[in-house]
């Protein structure tokens, strides 16, 4: 009798768990700032359609935050369920609340690596050929929560110049995201802009992925007018994260969904990731320990 009761209870719990997994009527996706809002919404529209069809959500809401912190605060406050963060943004989230989100996947470059670079770009006409030529010039950052657009150049450029950035450059400024930062250099508002890039493939294409690639593909910049003047060490690709309140079942479901996306809809995968990638691979929190330590030491939460 006891055995039957336990089996019945187990069955009920299993049913309850299955029902709970379908209880999400609205799935809320945060989209990092860095590109203009219209382009971000257009690129993510296919993902919203796939999520709705696959999981039966009544609504999939896309939230293109004005800056990185908007997505971070949404995840921390429970108003967002999912987002793809940069490594520094994830570090900032974990520092504020270690139990807020879980990283499930990261992107894999065309060469199989799971890293990318911060690159410094300048107008060819400026005469700047290396970062040391930019002494006394203006440096443009992307966003305070960006890995490649702030944290890494903040801590790594001084290893080349021998001076902190605020001493080496005449001025530094944030330009409201990666796209605006690159365009600030292209328009001569700053002398060097630091942005994300795979660093793979041809410079004339804007490499295989990253902001430079997006702007070249859109015809917003002519790569022939630009030159790479600095490149960082390899940076861990940022994670796809799920809010922990959704539970481990949803983490598993979303992991499976995204692992299949490059095959089920390669065009959509390329649109949301901004270029050419091999696919997604599973990732654990330990992958970002070094970035968390650097962020905590350099800029705190």
Automatic annotation (TrEMBL):
It comes from the Bacteria. One of its GO terms (biological process) is organic phosphonate transport. SUPFAM superfamilies: Periplasmic binding protein-like II (SSF53850). Keywords: Signal. Belongs to the phosphate/phosphite/phosphonate binding protein family. Residues 1-21 form the signal peptide. The keyword Hydrolase does not apply. This is Phosphonate ABC transporter substrate-binding protein. GO terms for cellular component: ATP-binding cassette (ABC) transporter complex. The keyword Metal-binding does not apply.
């Amino acid at each position: 009798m006891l055995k039957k009761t336990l089996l019945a209870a187990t069955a009920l719990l299993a049913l309850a768990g299955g029902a709970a997994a379908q209880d999400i009527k609205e799935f809320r996706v945060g989209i990092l700032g860095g590109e203009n809002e219209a382009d971000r919404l257009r690129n993510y529209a296919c993902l919203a359609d796939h999520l709705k069809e696959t999981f039966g959500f009544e609504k999939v809401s896309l939230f293109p935050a004005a800056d990185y912190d908007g997505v971070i605060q949404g995840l921390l406050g429970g108003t967002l369920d999912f987002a793809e963060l940069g490594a520094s943004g994830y570090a900032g989230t974990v520092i504020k609340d270690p139990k807020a989100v879980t990283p499930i996947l990261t992107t894999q470059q065309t060469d199989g690596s799971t890293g990318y670079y911060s690159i410094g770009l300048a107008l060819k006409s400026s005469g700047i050929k290396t970062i040391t030529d930019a002494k006394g010039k203006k440096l443009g950052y992307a966003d305070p929560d960006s890995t490649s657009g702030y944290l890494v150049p903040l801590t790594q450029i001084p290893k080349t110049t021998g001076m902190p950035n605020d001493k080496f450059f005449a001025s530094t400024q944030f330009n409201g995201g990666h796209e605006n930062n690159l365009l600030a250099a292209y328009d001569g508002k700053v002398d060097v802009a630091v942005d994300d890039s795979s660093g793979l493939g041809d410079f004339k294409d804007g490499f295989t992925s990253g902001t430079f690639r997006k702007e070249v593909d859109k015809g917003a910049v002519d790569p022939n007018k630009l030159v790479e003047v600095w490149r960082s060490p390899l940076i861990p690709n940022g994670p796809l994260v799920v809010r922990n309140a959704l539970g481990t079942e949803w983490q598993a479901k979303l992991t499976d969904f995204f692992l299949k996306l490059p095959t089920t809809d390669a065009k959509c995968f390329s649109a949301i990731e901004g270029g050419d990638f091999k696919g997604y691979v599973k990732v654990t929190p330990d992958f970002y320990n070094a970035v968390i330590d650097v962020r905590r030491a350099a800029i705190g939460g």
